[in-house]
Amino acid sequence: MVTFLFGIFFFGLSLYLYLTWNFDYWKRRGVVGPRPRPYVGTFPKTALMDKNSNYISETSEIFRKYYRKHRFIGIFEYREPKLMILDPALTVDIYVKYFKHFADNTMSETVFAKQDPLFKPNPFIATGSEWKERRTDLAPAFTMLRVKGMYPVIEDSCQRLVSYINDLIESGQSIIASKNIACRVTANSLCSNMYGLDAKAFDDHSDFVENSLRMFEQVPTFRTILWTIFPVLNKLFPNRSVSKEFNEWFIGLYKMAVELRSKNNIQRDDYLNLLMDLQKKKNMSVTSSAANAFVFFLDGFETTSYILGSAINELAKNKNCQEKLRAEVKSSKSRGFDDLNQLPYLDAVVNGNLMGRGRKVKKTTRVSPFPFPIWKTCTENIELTDLDGRVVLIEKGTKIILPTTAMHQHPDYYHDPDKFNPERFTTGAGDPKTLKDAGVFNPFGNGPRICMGMRWAICNIKAVLCTLVDNFEFSVRVTEEKPSTITGMLFFSNNTTQLEFKRLQ
Ligand code: HEM
């Protein structure tokens, strides 16, 4: 019995020491920050799984406490020290001027080629020269001209969306979930633009949509926590980000698309064509080439459909904005690709959603924020200077957090940031380029690693919103935006909002 109790005591003590031995990391470097506690670090609500909070809202709380007092602070995720950047100007420098010092995304450390053969080569994950090569290979697919070339497919998806909603209304089912619409229309455009294949996304059962929604491996929470606290487990028993079944299904789909194209000698100047050329030129394996195809899918599907779904919800909740957008769309002479970029209120609505908003639950909690925290890793030592002139050496390997949501939610930059207010982006001070240059509007990141698919995403979102307001009036029937959860990899909120659609005469 004594041995048993001694064992427990010894185990407890070792665990305590393991969890806390590094807690003076920032103190030793003269960097201030909230006091870490054993196990929870500086994120008690996230670590203890408070149902009314999440990592992003807790990051915003810390941000607000230290903002304007320091340019950066030291925080701890469980036991791991990270540097949180508070100064918008420093954020821009990290993205742009100091790029070579912060060139890698931290997620690259937890994705492994054996477990995730399609995900590992993704530009978002790739590092060093491999990243550069991937980005250079794929960049021609995402120019404005290419996106313009993809527009007829997006228009076709929009027309199918109209028929889909009309059919539902006719059959007496006018209550439709916004997530349903956003996922189907995005999947349809993506599949056609990517492969020249019909996703049949508006059918009752679409293989493409169903597989897309099951793309991410659901790792049990306790495993995620354990693996974060003991990073060595990542190396011994690496997690899979994308499920095995999805990998196999996706490679099969890619092979089918290539086969169809080669067999029928189809010539199209699209993404698949670019990938097939690359495969030949670089003598790539099918899996490596499918990994290139996967970029569009993985980085594009959930992000675009999430932002689109939340934009539809906001227009449904804010009837005056919906009407204003409708008036603008109806007054425009035609609906071509170039016309989409001549509608200032549409721009403002899209930016208003990219900014994200907090939803107050039980007085304080914010959910449904912008989905991305940006985690970067220091790739070359650098000295950063705090507001009081103190210089701190940030060593290679240090992880940093760019708290996008916290900046997007700060009242110094956005008056009443919780309010959906597209008008804030229509006046001089709300020019998105000015805000981006100031470091306080980064929905797509910035610098050499800026999102590759932003033009496609914006075009797709704009086209769908125009189509909806042009053809339907829609309002909220049931709102049930639950706090964000980690669905797969990203912090997307569970959008279960139901809308009622009426056909416009
Ligand atoms: C509204 C939708 C989207 C949002 C909000 C979004 C946002 C972002 C953000 C914040 C980053 C990180 C930038 C950085 O590290 O500095 C990123 C990277 C990336 N995005 Fe997007 N994205 C969206 C849609 C898309 C689409 C549709 C595609 C592809 C078709 C795409 C492809 C990529 C790629 C390849 C990267 C990695 C770039 C690199 O590290 O070099 N994204 N995106």
TrEMBL record:
Superkingdom of the source species: Eukaryota
UniProt-annotated location(s): Endoplasmic reticulum membrane; Microsome membrane
KW Endoplasmic reticulum (keyword) present: yes
Topology within the bilayer: Peripheral membrane protein
A single cellular component GO annotation: endoplasmic reticulum membrane
Major location category of this protein: endoplasmic reticulum
Gene3D superfamilies in the cross-refs: Cytochrome P450 (1.10.630.10)
UniProt-listed PROSITE patterns: CYTOCHROME_P450
Cofactor field: heme
GO molecular function: heme binding; iron ion binding; monooxygenase activity; oxidoreductase activity, acting on paired donors, with incorporation or reduction of molecular oxygen
Residues binding heme, per UniProt: C451
Keywords, ordered alphabetically: Endoplasmic reticulum, Heme, Iron, Membrane, Metal-binding, Microsome, Monooxygenase, Oxidoreductase
Record's function text: May be involved in the metabolism of insect hormones and in the breakdown of synthetic insecticides.
Family: Belongs to the cytochrome P450 family.
Protein's name in the database: Cytochrome P450 28a5
Natural source organism: Pseudolycoriella hygida
Gene: Cyp28a5_1
